[in-house]
Amino acid sequence: MQHEEVVQITPLVKRITAGNSSVFTGPGTNTYIVGKEEDLTVVDPGPALSDHIEAIVSCSSNLSRIVVTHTHPDHSPGVSLLQNKVDIPAYGLITETTKNQDTSFKPEKMLTHGEVIEAKDHKLEVIHTPGHASNHLCFLLKEEKLLFTGDHIMNGSTVVISPPDGNMQDYLDSLNKLKEYDLENIAPGHGELLPNPHSVAEWIIKHRLEREEKVIEAIKEVTKGNPDTLVEQVYSDVDAALFPIAKWSLEAHLIKLQNEKKVVKEGNQFIWKDT
User: Is the pLDDT of residue 175 over 80?
Assistant: First the structure.
């Protein structure tokens, strides 16, 4: 995937990938330009990288609005840089637990689930998908049944769920929610287009629940534990270098089990309830 190259991925959508590849971002953050020639929508201007913003601006002189999937540092800080060059409004969502994430992001208005953003040749339906972040939104391009998933679904890796803003039960519920929509492809925040969106969502749910079973097995074996003591057993199939990241999702699994009254928390220990 070429950084800063404008790639036409569908008749209505161009993609520009930022040069911020890393263990978290894979090949880099995808920015999408939606629309043919006029009244264009920018999805996720990405990180605050001047080269990336230049590539977005040079793509067209008819940018009309910005929409943001969530306010993590690789998705929304580019908004203010882009607005310095093009005077267009930005829309997204800020919640109580996300208000300190990207303080430069000042949406013209907050988007709500089910709302439709109408442009000259395209409509984007807003789908609230909390889990990776409480303010996470996906956008459904009605004309192409294409879903912009930000970090809700990525191509090439599973998504980190980091409490307290990240929530495992919300994430699973949000994945199930996507199965109610008529979808043909996923345009993820990282990686290439993904076909068969419903199958992708189902696979992720299955994978997360299998991981939860490993959490349950591990904690039953030792009767109590926390992300530090359980990570090696629960993520035995993962490179140990990734354990610091895996611990966040492990904590999210433990909190889900706590909410289901399967474990109780005392101090920093989660204890299996032998029911």
Answer: yes
